[in-house]
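Section handout, structural biology tutorial.
Before the tutorial, make sure you can parse a SMILES string by hand: atoms, branches in parentheses, ring closures as digits. In the record below the ligand is NAP, and the chain has 250 residues. In the tutorial you will relate the predicted structure tokens back to the input. Do not try to memorize them.
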Amino acid sequence: MAKVLITGASAGLGAELAKAFAARGDTLVLAARRLARLEAMKPELLALGAPEVVCYPVDLAEPAEVSQLAEALPGLALDVLINNAALGHWDALWDTPLETLNHMIAINMQALAHLTTAFSAYGKDRPTRLMNVASGAGYALFEGAIPYTATKFFVTALTEGLSLELKRQQKPMRAQLLAPGPIATEFLENSLLNSRMVWSDDALKGVKFHTASEAAALAMTLFDSDATVGLVEPDLSFSLHHEIHRAGQL
Ligand SMILES: NC(=O)c1ccc[n+]([C@@H]2O[C@H](COP(=O)([O-])OP(=O)(O)OC[C@H]3O[C@@H](n4cnc5c(N)ncnc54)[C@H](OP(=O)(O)O)[C@@H]3O)[C@@H](O)[C@H]2O)c1
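Predicted structure of the complex:
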């Protein structure tokens, strides 16, 4: 059975992914800031079939804490790393406070890049698996959320690029990228905190949402496939791809 570390496991998609891996009998390492929430999830995960659940409190906006986690990865002897934690912020770029922008870059990009780099250094010659969670907003520009969108473009490029290098060098490690569509979680509400954007009641009327458990099921479909990317479109259709970004030549 595998040992799986999931960031952002205290809520939303991360919490549902923890249940999905627990049901497969995998050992879990759950990372997030809210330790009490992670601890509260333990009994259900053990009952679902996880032999062991370790809770790892970490603030991914703090580079020193990210370094500590990155350095701990080899000792944890992981088979799977899921970089799921992220936050959004909805505003025009010029209305986005610098502090918010930097916070989002720290979590969505810097922490993810650091953990991805450390995990690939440890795992590239082993049959390990990385799944980074981006968004449909990692392949298309979403007006009103351009800074978030730009952080997710970084994630899609980094992950597809890593997958390409691993395949070309015939390494046993695999890298995958989940690009969900809208999911009904705390994420949207948090993305609107301190936003100057004025939302009419109708703004979300046409938007279709997956539940977190539906999104986790799609993540597991990607995990079980040999594809690199699992992409959800705004109409909630799901497709698997070997690549979306095209490879260039130096
Ligand atoms: N919801 C959507 O509509 C949607 C759409 C497309 C893609 N996505 C992507 O899907 C992923 C999961 O989203 P979600 O909707 O499940 O989000 P969510 O419900 O808001 O959960 C976010 C998770 O990230 C953790 N997190 C946030 N800041 C952190 C920090 N500084 N340090 C450590 N952990 C932190 C949170 O835990 P703590 O607060 O306990 O730290 C929480 O567990 C994200 O990558 C998101 O960009 C979401």
